[in-house]
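Q: Could you fold this chain for me?
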Amino acid sequence: AVRGGARMILHVEAEQGLRGSGAAAKFMQSMAEYAREKGLMLFPRCSYAVAWHKRHPDYDDVLA
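A: Sure. Below is the predicted structure, expressed as structure tokens.
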């Protein structure tokens, strides 16, 4: 969901064949880097996105 300069992360899920490969983590990192580059803020709502951000405090600057 888009709210001005914030992006709500409602759900992150990898396809069955990609689960356990790190695909969702790569997606989250790419999203955080994109947000940083564009000056956007991320508002994680799904449990995976929240947990990923807790494990990667170096991206706290993009959290809404």
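A (continued): The radius of gyration is 11 Å.
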